[in-house]
Amino acid sequence: MSDADDVAFGDTLLSVDGLTKHFTDDGGFLGGLTIDMDDGFSVAYDRDSVRAVEEVSFDIRKGETLGLVGESGCGKSTLARTILRLLEPTDGNVYFKGRNLAEIGGEELRSQRKDMQMIFQDPQSSLDPRMKVGRIVEEPMKAHGLYGDAEGREERAKELLEKVGLDPQHYNRYPHAFSGGQRQRVNLARALSVNPDFIVCDEPVSALDVSIQAQVLNTMNELQAEFGLTYLFIAHDLSVIRHISDRVAVMYLGQLVELADKEELFENPQHPYTRALLSSIPVPDPRAKGTRGVLEGDVPSPIDPPSGCRFRTRCPELIAPPEYDLTPAEWENIRTFTRAVDRRAFEAASVDAVRERFFDDAVPYGEAGTVVDEAIGLVCTDDWESAATLLRERFAEQSICAREEPAYEVPTEHGDSRHFAACHLHKTDLDEVH
Amino acid sequence: MNGTDPLLEVRDLKTQFFTAEGTVRAVDGISFTVEEGEIVGIVGESGAGKSVAASSILRLIENPGEIVGGEVRYRGETLVGFEQRDGELRERDDMLSNEAVRKRIRGREIAIIFQDPMESLNPVFTVGGQLREFIEINRDLPESEAREEAVDMLREVGIPEPVKRFDDYPHQFSGGMRQRVLIAMALACEPSLIIADEPTTALDVTVEGQILDLVEDLQQKYGTSFIWVTHDMGVVAEICDRVNVMYLGEIVEQASVDDLFHETKHPYTAALLDSMPRPDETVEELNPIEGVMPEAINPPSGCRFHPRCPDAREVCVNVHPENRAVAEGEIHPHRAACLQHEEVFRAGYWGSQPLDDAERAQRHRELTADGGGADE
Questions:
Q1: pLDDT at res. B375
Q2: Nearest by CB: A72 against B204, B235, B272
Q3: What's the average model confidence in pLDDT over A196-207?
C-alpha cells in the first residue's frame, strides 16, 4: 500500500461530480412503440427514461464514513453502483485518487477495482452456497493475483476471518452453517481480502436483528480504525446512519437534498425533507413526544419528476408564489386544498361544504380568491381533472420551488464541515415572502 | 360477560412444530390479555415465536405445526381450549369448531393483517373487487351497497382517487398503499380486535409514520383493540399501551409501555434497549447482546436467556423462572421471568456464583454448535 497515489487521511479520496444515471426501457425492438387508437391510428415511438440519479456531486475524505440515507426507490443503490462503475454513468465523472473512473476501462478499471469493494444487503444471496467460506474469501485475492500461492492465501484468509470476529477454524465450512450476522462477517472478510481503501456498504445490517446489528456495526468500526478504511454506508435506517457516519447525505428522488456533518444534520436539519424524515422515525422511548406522518402521499415517479425542487409536490413548506400577496394561513389552506383535489381525497357535496372544510379560517381574496372559487366550482361539478390542473398551474407551478432548482450552502452550527441544503427557503432575499 | 373481563385472554398457550430434526417449541406456554380499546405489543427478535403466537390465536397454524395446549378466550367464547383427560391432552367440548371460527370469528370479530400485503391480496383480481366481495360476504350487503362501502373504506384509509383506483390491480399500488388496503379490509367488518403482524416492517419510515397515524385515528374512532407484533422497539414506544417481550417461545417481561422502557425488570429487555442505535442522540459505542438466539428445538436449561445474559448466575442454569408479578403496575402488575427478583422467586440468586464469561461462552458454543459457534 505504498503506491505513489496514496491519499493522506482527511484528503479527498473519492470525488463525485455531476453524476447522472438514466435507465431506458429496454423492452426490445418494439418496446417504445405506442399506438394511439383514439387519434385515428397514429404510431408513436418514444422511450421514457427513468431518471434514477441526477446531477449528484459530493466528496468522500479518506478515513471517514459518509452515510447515504433515503427512502426505497430514491436511487441510493443505483448511485453506489454507478460510482463503482458497475453501471455505466449517463453523465458526470467519478474521481478516485484523482483518476477519472468514468474514462478508464478494461484492464485498468479491473485493477482499480481492488481498491474499491462492495458489501450487499442480503448476506445469504451474496455468498455462493457451494463454496466454502475459505475459498469465498480467497477468490478476490486470486483474481487480483495477490498473496502469492495457495498457501499464502489460506493464511491470509484465516487471518481475515479472525479479524472480522469469526473462528479461523471455520475456514472449511459452507455459508449455510453460519447465522445471518456471521455471513455478513464473511462478506466483510471477502471485501477486505484485497486491501481496499474504499468499501461501499449497501444496507449491510438491514436484514439483521437489532442485537446482531450492533455486533456487526461495532466490528465495522474496529476494522475501519485498524485498516484505515473509507466507507460509503447506505441505509434507510436513520438510527444506524447516526451511529456509524461522520457525515450524512440525504437523497430524494435521485438527487441529494442535504449534506452535512452527522451532528449538524441531526441537530440542525435545514431541508424540509430531512426534517420530515427525522420526525417520522419512531423513537424507542414512550416519553418522547413525536410528530409523525408529516408527509402526505407517495414519492412521484422518476420517469417524470417534478420541475425545480423534486420534493415540492409533498413539501409542507412550499413557498407561496409572490404575485398573490397571500398570508401564511391563506397559503396553507390553498396548498392543502390543491393536494386534496389532486388526490381526490374528499367528497365534494356542495360549494359551501368544500369552502368550510378547506377555507374556514382564512379565505384568500383578489385574484387568488377567484381562482379558488373557480376550482371549487369545478370540483362540485365533478370535473376534478380541470380543477387540479387549474390549481396546479395558477399556484404550485408559480412558486419558485417549481421554477428553479435549489442549491444553497447554509451556515454550520455544529462542527466545521460545510452544510449544503437544496431548498429555496435559504434564498436570502426571500425572507419577506415566507 | 361482566365489565371486568378482558376482550381476549390467552392462558398457557403452546404451539409446536413437528419436524424431522425434532419438536420446535415455537410458543411455549404464554399468557396475556387484551382489554377493550387497547393496543398490546408483542416484541422480540426473529425466531422468538411472535408470529406463531399471533397466528395461534386465530388457529391459523398449519402442518407440521399444532396448537398443543392452553386456552384462548374471546368474549366468553373458547377459540382454543385443551384439558387433561385420561392422562391425555384433549380439545374441550366448548372449543369452537373450525367452521364457527371461520364464519363467526375471523374477519368479523378478529381480523389479521400480515407483513407482506402482496401475499394477502390476489394478484389477478382488482383491489376494489376483493374488498367489495369481502364486505358483501361478511356483512350480507347487496353488491352495489358493498361497492359504495368499499370506496368509502378506501377513502377513509387515505387511498388517493378511490373511485378511479378501485379497478386497479394490486401490483399497481405501492407497498404503503397495499398495506392501507389491507387495513381497510381488516376494518371493513368493524372487528373488535385486529392482530397486526409486523404490518409496517417492509415500509419506509415516512410511510410507516403515515400508517401509525392512521391506525391511531381509526382506533380512536372505532375503539378497536390491537395486538401489534413487531421487532421494532421504536414502534412499540410509539403506539402500544402494554407490551409483552418474547424470547425463545416465552414471554419474559410484561408491562405497561412506560414501565417497560423506564422500569425495565428483565435483563433481556434491558440488553435489547441498550444494543439499539438511537435516532434522537448519538451513541458512540453500542453494547450488543453476546451470541445469537439458540434454536427452539433444544432450548437452554433453566432460564433460556442465561447463556447470553450478562447477569447470569449458577442458579439460572438450573431453575426455570415463570413469568411472575414482580412490581405494581397501573392496572396490571409488571411481570418478569428473572430470578434476580429474589423476593418473588426465592431461588437464592444473590447467594449463587456468577457465571464467568468463559463458562458462559462455552455453554453457548455447545448450544449453537451446529450453527457455527458463537458470534463473538
A1: 38
A2: B204
A3: 91
The 10s digit of each residue's pLDDT in B297-308 is 888 999 999 999
The predicted structure's pLDDT at residue B249: 94
Distance from CA of B287 to the nearest CA of A (A): 7
Architecture of the domain whose range is B8-240: 3-Layer(aba) Sandwich (3.40)
> Do the Cβ atoms of B231 and A218 come within 8 Å?
no
A282 to B204: CB separation less than 8 angstroms, yes or no: no
A384 grid coordinates:
376534478
Q: Give the total number of structural domains in chain A.
A: 2
Confidence band, pLDDT 50/70/90 cuts, at residue A2: very low
* Boundaries of domain holding A347: 322-398
Q: Which residue of A has its CA nearest to B234?
A: A284
Residue A38 pLDDT = 63
Contacts of A27 (CB under 8 A, 6+ apart): none
Q: Among B205, B233, B240, which would you mutate to test the A interface (most chain A Cβ atoms within 10 Å of its Cβ)? A: B205
Distance from CA of B365 to the nearest CA of A (A): 12
CA-based Rg of chain B, rounded to a whole angstrom? 22
**DSSP single-letter state for residue A359:** S
Q: What number is the average pLDDT over the span B318-327?
A: 93
Domain membership flag for residue A183: yes
Residues of A in contact with B155 (CB under 8 A): 345-347
Domain shared by A382 and A236, yes or no: no
Nearest to A175 by CA among A164, A165, A185, A163: A185
Quick check: A218 and B285 CB within 8 A?
Answer: yes
Which residues neighbour A126 within 8 Å (Cβ) at sequence distance 6 or greater?
Answer: A119, A120, A187
Residues of B in contact with A275 (CB under 8 A): none
Q: What is the pLDDT of residues B143-191, one digit of tens each?
A: 999 999 999 888 888 888 888 889 999 988 888 888 889 988 888 888 9
Spatial separation of the C-alpha atoms in residues A294 and B199, rounded to whole Å? 19
pLDDT higher than 80, residue A430: no
